[in-house]
Amino acid sequence: MGEYNTVFIFTEKANLQWTGSGELGINIILFIAISIWVLYSLHSVLFNNNRKYISHFILSVILFLFMSAGIWSNYEEVKRWRNEYEDLQKRYVSEDYNIAEGTVDLIQVGRRGGHDGGDIIQIDGIEFSISFFERTYAYSQPIRYGGALLHDVVARIYYYVDDHDDYKILRVDVKE
Fold it and tell me: Averaged over 52-67, what is the pLDDT?
């Protein structure tokens, strides 16, 4: 057998995730445009006594409220992702993790498209649950979605146990 090759590290997944975070910028631009529309409609109603703009004003206020909620929700999501990344980065750099090394024993393969527990594997006596539907930077790619932790693969897993007693995988190396 050869050397270990890294097939997953959380920083690569994080880099892919952050490339799609331009949605917040688009929401802010739309928010500014709707804010200008609200002010224009309000000005038309109040100073020009133009009643036909009342419906525009009401619609723009409703859109303004929806956009505000959307931006706030998006901001909270970006903040959650940033906090998770910083936590994982701090753990990885300070080597605050454990290593499980050995042959992967596949206990359960998750259903395709199912929201069950996903794959369950055991390595070095430690059981890991790998679910495609878990929103995390940690490893979450089961076999049915191209995961690398197949039965009888020799692997080294860098992991930690989070506050909910879930095993979060920071890095996966497989032996070729």
Answer: 76
